[in-house]
Amino acid sequence: MNLSFFDQFTSPCFLGIPLILLSMLFPALLLPSPSNRWITNRLSTLQLWLFHLITKQLMMPLNKNGHKWALLLTSLMILLLTINLLGLLPYTFTPTTQLSMNMALAFPLWLATLLTGLRNQPSIALGHLLPEGTPTPLIPALILIETTSLLIRPLALGVRLTANLTAGHLLIQLISTASTALLPIMPTISLLTTLVLFLLTILEVAVAMIQAYVFVLLLSLYLQENI
């Protein structure tokens, strides 16, 4: 029974073909296509307002050199946001619960920010490994600690997103299973459990949006350090 709780995190397959790529591309089909009309419908207006708000929030801590990354960071934010929210629907698969996918997003982008800093300002980028005013005996240890903290950044990004979404999905399944099992035995307790499940679902919607924002925001902060 315990193993069945983790079946929801198994990548779906059809005739032996993994469908994780299709589940990643499907949210993009839900976005309305751009139009050349002067007057658009409410959905397109809402979409443009949301894109503008997200881009403004992500570009706020960056200087003008970092605005070149606006399209990439905004697209990543929209992708993670739609995947996380659609994954809360019943009988759906959430690709962002896979550590391999999150690491595939985090590692190349983190490496790109690091290489940008080493190319544009190598002395400042390497200077982050040794804080100013460090006593001479502590220099080797601090360089090792700062290098380790720098290298685990992509791992922290991927594990944070995976752990938060996985924990939320497991809690929802556990409480829903308990509510169904208690219904014929103790209906009152089952109704209270259903209320807790409803509140938890609202919390998980907020977590899905916050984790997508935190993932991209940390990438933008890493970029700011290197430009």
Key features of this structure:
two-stranded antiparallel ribbon; ATP synthase subunit a; 2 strands; 227 residues; mainly alpha; 8 helices; transmembrane; membrane
Report the count of strand segments: 2
Give the number of domains: 1
Gap from first CA to last CA: 51 Å
**Secondary-structure element pattern, one letter each:** EEHHHHHHHH
* Number of helical elements: 8
- The coarse silhouette is globular
What is the beta-strand fraction?
Answer: under 5%
GO molecular function, one term: proton-transporting ATP synthase activity, rotational mechanism
Keywords: ATP synthesis, CF(0), Hydrogen ion transport, Ion transport, Membrane, Mitochondrion, Mitochondrion inner membrane, Transmembrane, Transmembrane helix, Transport
InterPro entries: ATP_synth_F0_asu, ATP_synth_F0_asu_AS, ATP_synth_F0_asu_bact/mt, F0_ATP_A_sf
Membrane topology: Multi-pass membrane protein
General description of the model:
The chain is mainly α and 227 residues long. It has one domain. Strand 1 and strand 2 (17-18) form a beta hairpin. It is globular and about 70 Å long. Helix 3 (70-86) packs antiparallel against helix 8 and helix 4 runs parallel beside helix 8 (187-225). The chain has a two-stranded antiparallel sheet with strand order 1-2. It has helices spanning 20-29, 42-59, 70-86, 99-120, 122-127, 139-151, 153-182, 187-225; strands at residues 13-14, 17-18.
